[in-house]
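Quick one, tokens below. Sequence please?
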């Protein structure tokens, strides 16, 4: 199935494996919160057990170094796409309010980005992530 939109998550490649998974999870949650229409119907198995809904379209995960993350952020904002962000400082906090504070304390050009997520029209996302490769 071809979707009109694309979801892209960009993760810094030099993170520890647990950090990459953590960042991807938080960023996917940001997409789900901002775009409730991308959430599918709840699941259920043949035994009648109910399960939660998932995002109903693929999430493509790309790897990037720090400069490429900053470039993707700027490209996103230039195209009026509001991304979800995760910064290295957020690894040292313990709750959502503290996460927002550490981001608010730094100007955009100095954010130590470790991840971004965005959802927009396919062609727009392709321009934002141009040059990035799938995360391995």
């Amino acid at each position: 199935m071809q979707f009109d939109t694309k979801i892209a998550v960009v993760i810094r490649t030099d993170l520890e494996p647990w950090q990459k998974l953590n960042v991807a999870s938080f960023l996917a949650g940001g997409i789900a919160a901002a775009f409730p229409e991308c959430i599918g119907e709840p699941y259920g198995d043949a035994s009648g057990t109910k399960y939660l809904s998932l995002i109903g379209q693929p999430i493509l995960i790309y790897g990037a170094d720090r400069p490429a993350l900053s470039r993707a952020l700027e490209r996103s904002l230039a195209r009026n796409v509001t991304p979800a962000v995760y910064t290295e400082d957020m690894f040292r906090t313990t709750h959502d309010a503290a996460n927002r504070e550490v981001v608010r304390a730094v100007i955009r050009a100095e954010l130590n980005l470790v991840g971004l997520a965005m959802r927009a029209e396919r062609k727009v996302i392709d321009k934002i992530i141009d040059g990035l490769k799938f995360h391995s």
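The first helix runs from residue 17 to 34. The mean pLDDT is 97.
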